[in-house]
Amino acid sequence: MKTINLTVNGKVVSGAAVEPRTQLADFLRDSLDLTGTHLGCEHGVCGACTLMIDGVPARSCITLAVACDGADVTTIEGMDDDDVMRALRAAFSREHALQCGYCTPGMLASARDVVLRMPDASEQDIRYAMSGNLCRCTGYVGIVRAVQAVIEERRAAGFTVCVNARTALGPVGSGHAAPMAGGGSPAAVNGATTRVSVAAPKASAPPKASAPAPATATPTAAPATRTASDSSKPMTTLNQTFTVDFPRDEVWAFFGRLGDVTTCLPGASLLAPPTETHVEPKLRIKVGPIVADFEGAADVERDPAQYVGMIFGSARDTKSSSATRGEIRYSLVEEKDGKATRVDVQVGFALTGSLAQFSRSSIVKDIAKRMTDAFAENLRARLSHGGSNSDGSAPAPQAAELNAGALVFSVLWERISGFFGKLFRRS
What we know:
Layout: E1 2-8, E2 11-18, H1 24-32, E3 50-53, E4 56-59, E5 72-74, H2 83-94, H3 104-117, H4 123-129, H5 141-156, E6 194-197, E7 236-244, H6 248-255, H7 258-262, E8 268-270, E9 278-279, E10 281-287, E11 290-303, E12 308-317, E13 323-335, E14 340-352, H8 363-384, E15 402-403, H9 404-426
Parallel strand pairs: 1-5, 2-6, 10-15
Antiparallel strand pairs: 1-2, 3-4, 3-5, 7-14, 8-10, 9-11, 10-11, 11-12, 12-13, 13-14
Helix pairs in contact: 2-3, 2-5, 3-5, 8-9
């Protein structure tokens, strides 16, 4: 982990712990909930993630968060009161320069730079300057007209001087670069501070045949003897806890039956008979009109001395380019004098492809809680009936598919209901 200090939308963020591989866009969205920064191609091509670093437009999807140590970052949320941005928003609306709106935050950030830096820009100049921002809806005509209209308005008002001209070469924000010791903290930033911590699964060492993993203070710890997969994309990490009224040894034995555990997940089934350490699951997920059938494989490591374990693997949708990798660490803790067991679970996952944006919203935490509740209910039911069918096979899955869209709707409805409930109580 690295510790960075930076200013985001005029507010100092101090002591933010990030993985060296974490991109600025992921840090802003997952850590600061600044979801106005959109992610599209994640290759620096489409421009949807464009924001300002030290006043210069930058692609946040290919900018490392650690490279912004000491920088001044402005996202679309920080431009609400900007005069140029206010004029651009009005012009975009007037000229019908947006349809789905996904590219709009990055489009506006780039357009603001063009307006300030090119006060005499022609239509051709605008098209060339904005060519790094892609739009799949509008055909760009309204966008170009909107930018041109704002330039003409400012020219008529006497704004004819180039602002924010480029004066240096090199990557945006590179002027703050300084050596940083591993895990160390650079010089503190003065002023009011906000502490942010980004949790991500750590890479782990190869398996050893010697002593078992030592006990740790936190109940979610597990023996991390292998990595889930070799990928540079950071995982989203979630922590969940639930309790079942069964002894720990009984729950531990159940978790050793991979077929039973797998089919406790909503929408999950088995592609082949599992072994003690390997399982090949299939998970059917529905998000609106999108139905994905993820097929993959997972391996398991368990430490009976500590009652902790780790499941790690990857899967790919058979119909699209969507793929996922992840790891689940679990720990069993005795409660109620051994009559109940608390299950502490840490889930780390990364999605790529058409379903990738589903993992970036803060709503996913609420959805994960509901999925955990469903898993816990299925687990209780299996334990109550001995875990397996009479022939020893795993019981049928609880659902033919995981309807993520319905979960999103139920979460949103609960939030909206809660908001109006508070509003009327205040009145």
